[in-house]
Amino acid sequence: MESSSSKMNQSLKCNEKEEYRFDPTTHNKFKEIMSTIPRRKDAWVFDLYQYEGFWCGSFQLEGMLSAQEHFKPQPNQVIVSSTPKSGTTWLKALTFAIMTRFHVDESTNPLLTRLAHDCVPFIEVNICSSPQKLNLDVPLVATHIPYTSLPKSITNSSCKIVYICRDPKDAFVSLWHFNHKMSAKDQEVSATEDVPLEDALEFFCQGLTTCGPYWDHLLGYWRASLESPEMILFLKYEDLKNDTLFWVKKMAQFIGCSFSLEEENKGAVQKIIDLCSFENMSSLEVNKSGMVRLELGITQDGVNAYEFKNNSFFRKGKAGDWKNHLTPEMARRLDQITEQKLAGSGLTLNVTPNG
Ligand code: PAP
Questions:
Q1: Do residues 98 and 245 lie in contact, with contact meaning Cβ atoms separated by under 8 Å?
Q2: Is pLDDT above 60 for 78?
Q3: For 131-175, what is each residue's pLDDT tens digit?
Q4: Closest residue (by CA) to atom 29 of ligand 1?
Q5: Is-catalytic flag, 103?
């Protein structure tokens, strides 16, 4: 079997940076699609468009169409995928640390000075235009795109996808807090501040959130993982919390970067876990006080971007925090939907019990 380091070196040599530019053909297609598909508001009165069964913002839709058109996987490409607020930041950090461990010194790891989102770009967001691109050639990207809408260049290839899901109750609470903190360019921050939890829950249950319905996103990847287990590793946030060591080793093996016995004996796995732990990441200066600019689309007029405070990606980092926010009735409602939606799929979520 090929050693993980030689595989990594091979991928480094072959890696070419993906560049998307403003593409008038995709833009016209996007305009045409936008004018015909269902449009609704989410709880925070942002416009959502329903495309291929899922809701998304206009820039995400254009970014997704652009990725469908232009994304070309690298050799040994790894893609981390999730629905928002399910553990994306953590998963990005872990996979990045696993994949860069052969050529990045512990003390200079970019994760110490940059937000994980800045180290691992979303294919539908800022892959082309991040102002401070990393010079590391790591064949690692992320996405929130639902499985059925992924670029064919991914689903028809041998890319490895690591997907993470989370108890919908915690994901919903996390989303609600995030939107409170969101600082959107050219938008009134206060516009997002007054949405009661009850109202936001109603929208979430109806599937009216970015990448919603939440449950359908999970199921798409789950079914694909059953069909192609060598292509998709399906993780649960709560499992990763409970037994991080086991799942980090599993992830490394899955993406072709297994830890050698020697590395294990030297504590390499634990070092990565410690580096990426919520406690460490949330205490880093960059994550306490920095800002990240997520570029959501390129138009004739330039780049459209949202700016987020890095600390908005680090709140509690716990499983079961929903208990501090949801009433038993709200929790029951989400659990019931989860049960109904997942019935017969073979997928069970680690939902923390109600009460
Ligand atoms: P995104 O989809 O907008 O990138 P994502 O990273 O998926 O967000 O979700 C953020 C959640 O992950 C937050 O959960 P909370 O609101 O319930 O606290 C955040 O705290 C949590 N998170 C971020 N980093 C870590 C980490 N290193 N370990 C565990 N949880 C984390």
A1: no
A2: yes
A3: 456 666 789 999 999 999 999 999 999 999 999 999 999 999 999
A4: 317
A5: no
